[in-house]
Design goal:
Layout: E1 16-20, E2 26-30, E3 33-37, E4 50-53, E5 64-71, E6 74-79, E7 82-86, E8 91-94, E9 105-110, E10 116-120, E11 125-129, E12 132-136
Antiparallel strand pairs: 1-2, 2-3, 3-4, 5-6, 6-7, 7-8, 9-10, 10-11, 11-12
Amino acid sequence: NFFNVTAEFSLTDGADSPDVAADGSVWFGLGSSVWRYLPNAAKRGMKNQFDSFSGTDGLLRANVFSTYGKSQTDLWVATGGGASHFDGRSFVNFTKADGLAQNDVITITGTPDGTIWFGTRSGGISRYEPNVISHFTQADGMTFKGIEGGVV
């Protein structure tokens, strides 16, 4: 079944990078905020099907380019100011100062072993393994400088 997600739900046009997590929750970016849709919220006695998170909640204050939602309480967000990780309660932010190749993170994805990959506009690719961030650039043999979109 399809239904339109519109102003009726306090959303505007232009949602970016929807990502469906394994538990069925849907994450998507909208400007400088991230939205979560919980399709079975009413069945679980929850009031809202939609939640939004922005800079006031701890998300980096920049345009959201990509999301990687593992569940309704585990989300990674690629922004123009770095990457943010939401654990269901709060955000932890990662920037170049923390080891990312560049702050302009365009795309983000993960692997089954928990490794998170970040594609940057012109700084190469960064890899996050718990507590360790490394990055790969043309100096490491990459044939391109950055990622403009798509999946890492």
